Amino acid sequence: MKIFSNEDMRRVLKMPAVIDVLRTMYTELGHGRVTNRLRSDIYCGTPDGGVYVLKSMDGVVPKLEVSAIRINSDIITWIPGAGGVRKEKVPAAPGGRWVGLILLFSTRTGEPLAIMPDGYIQRMRVGGASGIALDLMARRDAKVLALIGTGWQAGAQLLAACAVRNFAELRAYSPNREHRERFKEEMREELGRDIVLKDSPDELVDGADVILIATNSIDPVLRAEWIKPGMHIATIRSSDLERPVYDIPMRMILHGREVLPQDLITQGTPDLRELGDNESWHKRHDNIRWDELATLGDIITGKAVARASDDEITCYFNLIGTGAQFAAVAMKLLELTRGTNVGHDVPTEWLTQMEHP
Amino acid sequence: MKIFSNEDMRRVLKMPAVIDVLRTMYTELGHGRVTNRLRSDIYCGTPDGGVYVLKSMDGVVPKLEVSAIRINSDIITWIPGAGGVRKEKVPAAPGGRWVGLILLFSTRTGEPLAIMPDGYIQRMRVGGASGIALDLMARRDAKVLALIGTGWQAGAQLLAACAVRNFAELRAYSPNREHRERFKEEMREELGRDIVLKDSPDELVDGADVILIATNSIDPVLRAEWIKPGMHIATIRSSDLERPVYDIPMRMILHGREVLPQDLITQGTPDLRELGDNESWHKRHDNIRWDELATLGDIITGKAVARASDDEITCYFNLIGTGAQFAAVAMKLLELTRGTNVGHDVPTEWLTQMEHP
Prior knowledge:
The structure is a homodimer of 357-residue chains. By secondary structure, chain A is an alpha/beta fold.
């Protein structure tokens, strides 16, 4: 049994490998051979007046002979800011650290295969799914990629896009110049390519073939006037698109049917703050029949059309994650580290038992 | 962070301590200050024709500053036998071992506190809850305890009963003489008391004040004719009681309201085989209003009556487990081992991260 660190993963597990295994997983999912248990969140008050949340999700991918459970154990606080109240996870574990774990099991023997923090994979699996969708949905001659956001998730979006297509120009914009500059440096190192930074969103999207959105803005960031025929758009939050965007005819594809946006509304958890208040969200989306949209599993298996013409506008909603994503990507890591000394060894018998449970 | 073994727990964590912490947990539960996520089971076929199941349940007990997730990763098979088809977990992990884990987290810092197999606690938490119920429900002058079953769970029932009350006579019966004899030996060692073995169930129950049932029989084992005024009965499966038992007026108390017996029927999992076919089960129970019964949390907080008179017959249904049971008992273990060298040390930073997940 192995315990991996985010640093181990950063060294070994690159975006092309993540996309490769996610393609297998989404194909299996599209054929109905993958099972996810949706994330469940238990919020509770703590004796000292804080808020604690335990989140978990499960996924089983029989073809990869793997199952996983992903666990988050977070201390939560709400911070008032310019854009409204923002939910923050407090790094309250020793050393000022956060707690998110993936446990991997074999479906052949049941045994625990590995335990690892979820940070690196969290970023890569979101980016990877977006990359697969982009490859299926964007025009074959797409040249210019525009990225709104220059944070932690934005980098993975770019890595994934470049893993599936050759873009002539990569652009990025975010409101803070310092953040943009830092992002450019990071991407030069991680991707080996030069990002063109833009000073305004209008400059960013002018002539773009693909717009990827990965911000933590509370307000919508994508304006309807920017959208041109043939574009491909992808976002990790439906609230990133301003209301008029939803009036533009476009082919929308969901990450999965496990959680539809309206479910997020009715779950009634503080996560809803991310979507703004319910009423305004409903007004923004009331013309969309979310439950009739095709999914990534549908288009990867050819059960649904990914793009019907070069003029069509396509939009991919890369919303809530699933256990099977973590299972598949973590299994790839295990495969890549087999026979190496990457990771800490823990005797498997520490985590198995002679007792019939 | 600690990794404990069942052997560590067997040495350190005795039934009185288990009952002590479970009393706190059930009191909190009764006051609505404990949250459980019900067990979810993902069954799937494996490429080699087997069946794999991933089960998980979560629980948070703020007063004890602890949350837990309990995971089972099992290879399943169905074995035809004298009593019908029986579901069996195959010990397919290396060394012929099973896989069930408890992960414990702090609700104050979020950090992982411990990981341990679930076998020992599984047995102790079932017994412990039964002991708490017995103490609240059995007549104060109960002298003779009769145990149906001499297996793994039966021992914990006896340990718990003896932890809360002083019985003058402890009796046990199971169909296999060899099993009975072995059980007597084990209990002499574990409990330090002599069990009176009986050759038939009729002899067993004659004059008994308390009947505890812990068998893996598929057929009902408790006959209506054995039940006398003032008796206390407890079972871990409602199917242990033959149909006419349900016609006898008695005060029935459930372990919890999280899962009612009828829910087990409608879950549609292979677990149902344990209950026999649905129709016959329904016929056996159609006169019981399960959802109106009081729970262990109700009687421990005094919100419901545990026993109204010395003549009343009381029956405790110690059905499906909850994450909070595992959280509470595992936390007790942690408390008892603090400052000792019990368990393997794993650096907490292996299972926490600098990445904001």
